Amino acid sequence: MQITETICYKEADGIGLLADLCLPEAKGPRPMLLYFHGGGWHAGDRTELQWFSRWADALLAAGVAVASVEYRFCTDGRSYRAPVDDCADALRFFARNADRWMLDPPRVVVGGISAGAHLAMMVAFAGEQFGEKTPIAPVRGVVALSGPTDLTRIRYTDPGMVPCMEAISGGREPYDAAILAAASPLTWLKALPIQAHLPPILAIHGACDALVDPRQPVWIAEEYARRGGSFRLVTVENATHVFAQAKPGADPSMSFAEIQEEAADFTLERLL
């Protein structure tokens, strides 16, 4: 995986927001994966894509462009809207500038891990309601790794989640249930008309995830089933939030390499 260009896709709050773009050798029009990093909405950066180089390299070899996007954190009083605004506007930016990199805007998959998976689902279900609030072409699919879907049912007391929940709620405590509901992909999914386009989703989740309850993707899956949408849930046994070994004695049921291959296969299936 080699970065072709680092681009400032937006300025907000005096911050120039960057995206690392990797282009395949194949000429356009090129489909694209837009990747959003994790970090609990208050940390992390776009270089996280290097963890997923096997996923990215498989896409590049098949002629798919890959962009890893940074966004504003939920700090300094910013609530969940700031990063969702930015991720939606990143999608708009690449659509507007498609000719510059020979991209094909109707063929985009969004994805990420943890907070990044949450943002990918928010953009997929409600992108037009955030950022510039101009039309966005429906995405072709979503890859959600360890993604929270209903923040009203997050385990607030887990020490690892306390800073995340403080961030996503804009620093408000006790946590406002209305804000958490508004920040939840499940809320926006349920608000869609019953005939609305639903992008296929691949969700991969560790069975021993102590930060984001393994039931979180199930709640989206249930709503997809009710609406006839395509949702695939892969549960990785004996795996943590980041798919490491949870308990001694047995490896996770999928290796990190296999998880990336699963993500790559789904992305290519949706784009080619």
Please count the beta strands (DSSP E, at least 2 residues each).
8
Percent of residues in β-strands: 15-25%
Relative helix content: 25-40%
Number of helices: 9
Biggest sheet architecture: 8 strands, mixed
Mean pLDDT over the residues? 94
Structural class of the helix and strand makeup?
alpha/beta
For the largest sheet, list the strands in their spatial order: 1-2-4-3-5-6-7-8
Unreliable stretches covering 5 or more consecutive residues: none
Shape: globular
Query: How far apart are the termini?
Result: 20 Å
Spell the H/E element sequence.
Answer: EEEHEHHEHEHHHEHEH
What does the radius of gyration come to?
17 Å
How does the SSE layout of this entry go?
Blueprint: E1 5-12, E2 15-22, E3 30-36, H1 53-61, E4 65-69, H2 81-96, H3 98-101, E5 103-113, H4 115-126, E6 141-145, H5 162-168, H6 177-182, H7 185-191, E7 201-206, H8 216-227, E8 231-236, H9 256-271
Parallel strand pairs: 3-4, 3-5, 5-6, 6-7, 7-8
Antiparallel strand pairs: 1-2, 2-4
Helix pairs in contact: 1-9, 2-4
What does this structure look like?
Helix 1 runs parallel beside helix 9 (256-271) and helix 2 crosses helix 4. An eight-stranded mixed sheet has the order 1-2-4-3-5-6-7-8, sandwiched between helices. The chain has helices spanning 53-61, 81-96, 98-101, 115-126, 162-168, 177-182, 185-191, 216-227, 256-271; strands at 5-12, 15-22, 30-36, 65-69, 103-113, 141-145, 201-206, 231-236. It is globular, with a radius of gyration of 17 Å. It contains nine helices and eight strands. With 272 residues, the protein is an alpha/beta fold.
